[in-house]
């Protein structure tokens, strides 16, 4: 740019040229605040042409921040001039000509020549740093306000950060955790050794860490036990090396209490153990969960007298002291709670009048506080009291409130056992959502069916039924919709089986079918009928859900002679069904056992491959339909060369990545690698204008995806329109409001969006008005049938007309013959891709292919995206 200055400027040409070339903005100002020089960097910073800047009052172009951090603009302070800013550094805000804001760090020097003062202001653009700092502060505030406890460590597993929720949950301030390993701080005497080892191993091997999850008992600063679910992920640099480990902890104490107490106490009731024995088990379980207290279960008779059913930590003499006492307004915590029919807390029994007649009995035992809660029947009748005895003054906290809620509900069942016998039985043996037999009942039924099969010499079928993509329904539609779907599938399964067959729910979306006295022909026929029923649309909240199931079958005695083996083998066969494409059945075979082991090893190898350089990309050219010598762009396709197995088919390892929660990491690797290669080509003069990649449907559930894409493009200095994302049918299936918002944010970045496999599955016209699509990819099945099918030709021509009408590019993939190319070109197909033009190529091979064919860049003759 040519330097402009007002007449009379004393700056020599050499100095002027030097100042012009400086990276920072340089502005020269005279004693009247008038600008006499404005270099190129200043033009860029202010967005103001130099000719317009010269002669302007410099103080009108900046705002300085005073000591209250309030911007002071020159127009607010007419007395403020450049001389007052000389010899100091100031943070300034700059309103650019287009109205946007920039920030800079400004230093002003005063130069006096022959009695005339001039000033040079050097302004370093700090806009990016300022915005990053503001973003960091906002993010820090959000992280600190969230209810989830977040702890970050360095790669060696030592704490570098914890948020406010971690302090609230665990009691430790950040300065108490810095530099320490979480296991040293939070583990305690009842922390599960195996779970602890899994967490230690995960944090000590961060290179292979991705989405590790574990439930574990930890201890707060006051040594209170707390069940948490911890998810650990690694934050990696651009090279893929872990720089931090982030642990997110969720309090699941109430869930664990429900599980442990219900399993043990309800089990004891079902086994018809005496009431006193069940009450003792309940108290022991509670004291096991909260070892800082003792508890008792006390029955209240219809005459209003107390009878202790269980108090395992109190001496018998103390129990006898209370037994037979009438309830009353000052009978300790228990008798008073029964009298008032409301909870009673005594924070210090040494001076509370309610304990006046009993404190000498309890104080020598180290009991200093008590909390009692009345137990009422469903009709509101008082039937008992549940009491906590504390070794410290004060008593009840949130942890104990949750615990007593669970315990009292079980006491109600215990004390009303006769009338509640059927309810207890259902809770113990049947799934609450579907009313089907649960794991415990299934085990009993299978044992009975196995014994019958052994006695009669007949066969027995065990069938594992797992819904396909059920997690996606939960993630995109919500758990309420998922529950309705499970309920309807359970009803269809019950209706499909015969008398004597057993249908149960094992867990989540997995059902078990036990079919006695069956053979392979009968069970295959039954399962096919069940699959057909499951495929029927399910109406939920005004919309139709389409689902399917994968089924595995194990037969007694050929595939196993005990419950555990048959269930395991049916499960293996079910997973093989999923691997074969879902929505089908598979019988177990001995080969599957080794296949499952091989799959587990392959999963571990894929985790390592993401960081060991075994993955690579191949690039398939997309060319202009009318002039196949013109390159439109390339599609990046991921490949894996296993050190022992050689090339692993993408269909195999990509599907496995989806099923094993590795797909997000794989997607991120592909995105980074493709952008890195495109940037390299551009630096070397290989003018490839666009690269297309596929991202998993589950990735679009992540609201952070647009940010990841933007950061990756910035890191490689690529314009957004150099990237195309191909949306698969899974994205269409999960096109919720949140997913649509994420897609819209990506499109607003300038990234191109392509609808893959258009004309099949969920990729239909209904989505074109909901999604900001730039491109349609004609499914290869249409292209392959062009030479022999009138229907394929008609459908292809229709898709091309749709693309033309909506101003969308149509890409025909799978073009393999000249006849196919000719038909597509005659009907105006703008872009083609397939082996007729080139197979997927390595970067070096693609460069050679371009030179050999003398391919010209599509943009040069007007082909635009």
TrEMBL record:
<dbReference type="InterPro" id="IPR035919">
    <property type="entry name" value="EAL_sf"/>
</dbReference>
<dbReference type="Pfam" id="PF00990">
    <property type="entry name" value="GGDEF"/>
</dbReference>
<dbReference type="InterPro" id="IPR013767">
    <property type="entry name" value="PAS_fold"/>
</dbReference>
<feature type="domain" description="GGDEF">
    <location>
        <begin position="458"/>
        <end position="590"/>
    </location>
</feature>
<dbReference type="InterPro" id="IPR012226">
    <property type="entry name" value="Diguanyl_cyclase/Pdiesterase"/>
</dbReference>
<dbReference type="Pfam" id="PF13185">
    <property type="entry name" value="GAF_2"/>
</dbReference>
<dbReference type="InterPro" id="IPR000700">
    <property type="entry name" value="PAS-assoc_C"/>
</dbReference>
<feature type="domain" description="PAC">
    <location>
        <begin position="212"/>
        <end position="264"/>
    </location>
</feature>
<dbReference type="InterPro" id="IPR003018">
    <property type="entry name" value="GAF"/>
</dbReference>
<dbReference type="InterPro" id="IPR000160">
    <property type="entry name" value="GGDEF_dom"/>
</dbReference>
<feature type="domain" description="PAS">
    <location>
        <begin position="135"/>
        <end position="206"/>
    </location>
</feature>
<protein>
    <submittedName>
        <fullName>EAL domain-containing protein</fullName>
    </submittedName>
</protein>
<dbReference type="InterPro" id="IPR043128">
    <property type="entry name" value="Rev_trsase/Diguanyl_cyclase"/>
</dbReference>
<dbReference type="GO" id="GO:0006355">
    <property type="term" value="P:regulation of DNA-templated transcription"/>
</dbReference>
<feature type="domain" description="EAL">
    <location>
        <begin position="599"/>
        <end position="854"/>
    </location>
</feature>
<dbReference type="InterPro" id="IPR000014">
    <property type="entry name" value="PAS"/>
</dbReference>
<dbReference type="Pfam" id="PF00563">
    <property type="entry name" value="EAL"/>
</dbReference>
<feature type="domain" description="PAS">
    <location>
        <begin position="11"/>
        <end position="67"/>
    </location>
</feature>
<dbReference type="InterPro" id="IPR001633">
    <property type="entry name" value="EAL_dom"/>
</dbReference>
<dbReference type="Pfam" id="PF00989">
    <property type="entry name" value="PAS"/>
</dbReference>
<dbReference type="InterPro" id="IPR029787">
    <property type="entry name" value="Nucleotide_cyclase"/>
</dbReference>
<dbReference type="Pfam" id="PF13426">
    <property type="entry name" value="PAS_9"/>
</dbReference>
<dbReference type="InterPro" id="IPR029016">
    <property type="entry name" value="GAF-like_dom_sf"/>
</dbReference>
<dbReference type="InterPro" id="IPR035965">
    <property type="entry name" value="PAS-like_dom_sf"/>
</dbReference>
<dbReference type="InterPro" id="IPR052155">
    <property type="entry name" value="Biofilm_reg_signaling"/>
</dbReference>
<dbReference type="InterPro" id="IPR001610">
    <property type="entry name" value="PAC"/>
</dbReference>
């Amino acid at each position: 740019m040519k330097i402009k200055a007002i007449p009379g400027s004393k700056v020599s040409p050499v100095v002027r040229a030097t100042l012009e070339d400086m990276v920072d903005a340089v502005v020269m100002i005279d004693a009247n605040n008038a600008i006499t020089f404005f270099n190129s960097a200043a033009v860029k910073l202010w967005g103001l042409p130099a000719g317009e800047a010269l002669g302007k009052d410099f103080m009108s172009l900046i705002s300085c921040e005073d000591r209250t951090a309030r911007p002071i603009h020159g127009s607010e302070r007419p007395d403020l001039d450049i001389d007052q800013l000389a010899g100091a550094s100031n943070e300034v805000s700059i309103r650019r000509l287009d109205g946007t804001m920039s920030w800079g760090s400004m230093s002003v020097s005063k130069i006096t020549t022959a009695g005339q003062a001039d000033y040079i202001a050097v302004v370093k653009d700090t806009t990016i740093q300022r915005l990053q700092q503001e973003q960091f502060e906002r993010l820090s505030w959000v992280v600190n306000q969230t209810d989830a406890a977040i702890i970050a460590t360095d790669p060696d597993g030592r704490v570098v950060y914890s948020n406010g929720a971690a302090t609230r949950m665990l009691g430790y301030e950040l300065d108490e955790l810095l530099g320490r390993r979480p296991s040293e701080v939070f583990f305690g005497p009842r922390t599960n050794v195996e779970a602890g080892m899994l967490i230690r191993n995960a944090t000590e091997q961060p290179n292979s860490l991705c989405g590790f999850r574990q439930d574990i008992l930890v201890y707060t600063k006051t040594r209170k036990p707390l069940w948490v679910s911890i998810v650990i992920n690694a934050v990696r640099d651009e090279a893929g090396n872990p720089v931090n480990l982030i642990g997110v902890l969720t309090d699941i104490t109430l869930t664990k209490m429900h599980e442990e107490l219900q399993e043990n106490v309800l089990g004891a009731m079902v086994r018809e153990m005496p009431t006193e024995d069940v009450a003792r088990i309940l108290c022991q379980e509670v004291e096991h969960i909260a070892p800082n207290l003792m508890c008792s279960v006390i029955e209240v008779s219809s005459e209003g007298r107390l009878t202790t059913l269980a108090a395992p930590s109190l001496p018998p003499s103390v129990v006898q002291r209370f037994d037979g006492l009438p309830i009353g307004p000052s009978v300790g915590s228990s008798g008073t709670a029964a009298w008032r029919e409301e909870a009673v807390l005594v924070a210090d029994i040494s001076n509370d009048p309610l304990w006046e007649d009993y404190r000498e009995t309890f104080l020598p035992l180290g009991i200093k506080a008590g909390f009692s809660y009345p137990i009422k029947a469903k009709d509101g009748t008082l039937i008992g009291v549940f009491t906590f005895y504390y070794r410290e003054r004060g008593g009840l906290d949130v942890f104990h409130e949750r615990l007593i809620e669970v315990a009292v509900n079980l006491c109600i069942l215990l004390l009303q056992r006769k009338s509640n016998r059927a309810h207890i039985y259902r809770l113990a043996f049947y799934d609450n959502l579907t009313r089907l037999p649960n794991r415990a009942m299934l085990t009993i039924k299978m044992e009975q069916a196995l014994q019958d099969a052994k006695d009669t010499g007949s066969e027995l079928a065990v069938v594992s039924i797992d819904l396909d993509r059920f997690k996606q329904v939960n993630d995109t539609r919500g758990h309420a919709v998922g529950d309705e779907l499970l309920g309807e599938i359970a009803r269809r399964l019950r209706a499909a089986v015969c008398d004597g067959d057993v249908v149960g729910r094992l867990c989540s979306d997995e059902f078990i079918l036990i079919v006695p006295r069956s053979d392979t022909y009968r069970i295959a026929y039954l399962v096919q009928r069940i699959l057909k029923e499951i495929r029927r649309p399910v109406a939920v909240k005004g919309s139709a859900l389409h689902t399917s199931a994968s089924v595995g079958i194990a037969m007694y005695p050929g595939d196993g002679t005990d419950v555990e083996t048959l269930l395991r083998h049916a499960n293996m066969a079910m997973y093989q069904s999923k691997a074969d494409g879902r929505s089908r059945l598979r019988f177990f075979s001995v080969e599957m056992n080794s296949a499952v082991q091989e799959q587990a090893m392959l999963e571990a190898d894929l985790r390592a491959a993401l960081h060991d350089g075994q993955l690579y990309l191949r690039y398939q050219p997309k060319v202009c339909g009318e002039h196949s010598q013109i390159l439109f762009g390339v599609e990046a396709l991921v490949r894996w060369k296993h050190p022992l197995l050689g090339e692993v088919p993408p269909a195999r390892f990509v599907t496995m990545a989806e099923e094993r929660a590795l797909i997000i990491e794989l997607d991120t690797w592909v995105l980074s690698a493709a952008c890195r290669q495109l940037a390299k080509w551009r630096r070397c003069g290989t003018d490839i204008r666009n690269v297309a990649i596929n991202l998993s449907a589950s990735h679009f559930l992540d609201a952070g995806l647009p940010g990841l894409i933007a950061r990756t493009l910035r890191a490689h200095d690529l314009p957004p329109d150099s990237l195309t994302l191909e949306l698969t049918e899974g994205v269409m299936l999960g096109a919720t409001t949140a997913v649509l918002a994420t897609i819209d944010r990506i499109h607003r970045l300038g990234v191109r969006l392509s609808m893959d496999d258009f004309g099949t599955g969920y990729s239909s016209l209904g989505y074109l008005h909901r999604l900001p699509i730039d491109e349609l990819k004609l499914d290869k099945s249409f292209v392959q049938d062009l030479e022999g099918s009138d229907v394929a030709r008609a459908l292809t021509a229709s898709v091309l007309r749709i693309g033309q009408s909506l101003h969308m590019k149509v890409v025909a993939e799978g073009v393999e013959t000249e006849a196919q190319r000719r038909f597509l070109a005659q009907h105006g197909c703008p872009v083609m891709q397939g082996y007729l033009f080139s197979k997927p190529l390595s970067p070096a091979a693609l460069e050679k292919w371009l030179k050999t064919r003398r391919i010209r860049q599509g943009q040069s003759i007007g082909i635009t995206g």
